[in-house]
Amino acid sequence: MNALLDKNIKEIIKEYNGVEDVLTKWNIGCTGCSMGTCRLRDIIEIHNLNESDEYSLFSEMAEVIYPGVKVEIPKLQRKPKVLRKKISPPLAALIEEHVNIKRVIAKVQLLITADDKTLLESTAVIEQALDFIRNYADKFHHAKEEDILFKFFDANSDIIVAMEEEHVAGRKYVRSVADALKTGNTAAIRNGLKSYTDLLTEHIKKEDEILYPWMDRQLSDRDIGQLFSKFAEVDEKFSSQNVKYVSLFSEG
Ligand SMILES: [Fe+2]
Ligand SMILES: [Fe+2]
After folding, report:
1. 144-149: average pLDDT
2. Section 202-218 average pLDDT
3. Measured in angstroms, how far is the CA atom of residue 38 from the centroid of ligand 2?
4. CA 130 to ligand 1 centroid distance, Å
5. Which domains does the chain have, with CATH numbers?
6. What are the pLDDT digits (tens) for 24-36?
7. Could you tell me the distance, in angstroms and rounded to a whole number, from the CA of residue 58 to the centre of ligand 2?
8. pLDDT over threshold 90, residue 118
9. Ligand 2: distance of its center to the CA of 140 in Å?
């Protein structure tokens, strides 16, 4: 069982029938993750299982992987983590920015199911949404993640690489919608909007529920202070444009 700790979780799921059900029972949705490059030991750390839950999860996995065999249940070494009652202010601010992004995603999603005529009549709204996505979601919010927050972590770690790749994929979908708007290709507009909104919805959920809480547990108070002041500089730089973007999609 110890040998499995450094194995990729998706390979374990593929190799051993039933592991996926165990993980799902523990609310660990690795199969839905677009990358799934984490090792088994990363899963435990990222999902913040306590020692007794970790033991139960490993025991249930062992029963599936080695049925009827008594195996040693691994025990992970625990790094000291920072205990905070609430998520720290800089990360709470990023979650607040997600609320604004999700509002625009919801408006765009309504257009995906619209008929061709309505879709083409909504070109101006789609262009406005793309402008918001490029500037607020990407140049402002994703840049805060990539250029500031992620720099506190190992750039080569699977979870950081996965998040950055999703940002890149999002940009590709935005370009595909912009190109499709020029030619009035409604199927391509719909495809691009759907791909983008599906990707970002999952991406934000992962950040809000897993990535940010995990990061918050790793960051010291000093790190949080630095994050706070670096974010404040960016917020200041973007303040007038952000007032416009947030108000543009806040009503209705
Ligand atoms: Fe992100
Ligand atoms: Fe984000």
Report:
1. 97
2. 94
3. 20
4. 17
5. 2-65 (1.10.3910.10), 89-248 (1.20.120.520)
6. 888 787 766 655 5
7. 31
8. yes
9. 10
